[in-house]
Amino acid sequence: MAPPLESYEKDAPSIAWVEPVPPELIVDEIHDLAERNGVKPMKVGGFWLGPKGSDGIAGQPAKPDERVIYYFHGGAHVRGSAHPSSAMGAGYEGLLQHLGPNTRIFSLEYRLASAAPFAQENPFPAALLDAIAGYRYLIHTVGFNPRQVIISGDSSGGGLALNLVRYLALYKLPQLPQAGGLLLLSPTMDWGKTYADDPNSAYCRNVRSDFVETVMEVDYTPRALRGNMPEDFVRKSLWISPGSREAEWKPGAFSGLPPTFILAGEAEQTLDGMHAVRDLLLQDIGEERLTYVEMPDTAHDIILFKWFEPERTQSLVKIAEWAQKL
């Protein structure tokens, strides 16, 4: 579990607090799931990276043409941190370097889920409620134009990013207009492991070329996410496993998403789910709004590893080219 933000006193100029999402912005299926799992909105925080205000404190009002990457870190929904010194540090650095000086990053310290043998805490949709609150903070407190917001995440954070833009698209809440773009970096799209029984799948084929097997082969994340929901919720819900073979997708389920960039690695164990989501998005938003890049011979989350060259830089260049066209 990530330490509380109060423990990061030396980072105070880069920390921002996010007020809980108002109840009227929690609607429909997400409202019902929150009720079933006993999830309530709460105050969370996050870290600013990139240009600071003239007083040296981050979180200054947005300029009209300024862009922000609203970021969700990976960690299987159960660990990790948004802190700049975390594993995501090299990723932040790479994105800022390639997207230019007119870009900031706000990385949310969303709630992490847990399950036995620990206390059952923060099941779905806790992190999504935090993500909604953070988006509201960016556009209503900091003042970013929603079209200047790129919602992004790596690994499990990619799933949270997809959930947020889907929520905005489905419910069209006047206070929460759709963002300008969606950037998914090695997103984990199938926590139900529905490809594990296919010897021709990437899940089986790439087990030795990737490093995520120990995370995927235990059932801790599925148990932590589902809370009071039945076991098949993890395999069937588009909110948890949109790339599952059993996902309850219907045409139009992802309609209304902003222009989307998916970065995948050919050697990733979880590639099957990414392929599945790519194909669903092609049907729902069309190839003109979807950019899919699969880097040859690369494993999971390469922008986090500075030594993964030249593929890391090549990927960041492609991301920057896409972002400039938004």
Number of helical stretches of at least 4 residues: 10
* Proportion of residues in extended strands: 5-15%
Write down the CATH topology: Rossmann fold
Radius of gyration: 18 Å
CATH superfamily: Alpha/Beta hydrolase fold, catalytic domain
What structural class do you assign from the helix and strand content?
A: alpha/beta
Proportion in helices: 25-40%
From the N-terminal CA to the C-terminal CA, the straight-line distance is 35 Å
Main sheet strand line-up: 1-2-4-3-5-6-7-8
Query: Regarding CATH, which class?
Result: Alpha Beta
Could you state the order of secondary-structure elements as H and E? Answer: EHEEHEHEHEHHHHEHEH
* Strand elements, count: 8
Q: Please tell me the CATH architecture by its name.
A: 3-Layer(aba) Sandwich
Q: Which overall shape is indicated by the principal axes computed on the Cα atoms?
A: globular
Low-pLDDT runs of 5+ residues are none
Total individual domains: 1
Q: What can be said about the biggest beta sheet?
A: 8 strands, mixed
Q: State mean pLDDT (0 to 100 scale).
A: 93
How would you describe this protein?
The mean pLDDT is 93. This protein has 326 residues and is of the alpha/beta class. It is globular. Helix 9 links the parallel strand 7 and strand 8 (290-295). The protein has one domain (16-52, 64-324): Rossmann fold, CATH 3.40.50.1820. Strands 1-2-4-3-5-6-7-8 form an eight-stranded mixed sheet, with helices on both faces. The longest helix has 17 residues, at 126-142. Helix 2 packs across helix 10 (311-324) and helix 3 (126-142) crosses helix 4. It has ten helices and eight strands. The chain has helices at 28-36, 89-99, 126-142, 156-171, 202-205, 213-216, 220-226, 233-236, 271-285, 311-324, and strands at 15-18, 44-49, 67-72, 103-109, 149-154, 181-185, 260-265, 290-295. The protein is 31% helix and 14% strand. The active site is at residue 155. InterPro entries: AB_hydrolase_3, AB_hydrolase_fold, GDXG_lipolytic_enzyme, Lipase_GDXG_put_SER_AS. This is Alpha/beta hydrolase fold-3 domain-containing protein. Belongs to the 'GDXG' lipolytic enzyme family. One of its GO terms (molecular function) is hydrolase activity.
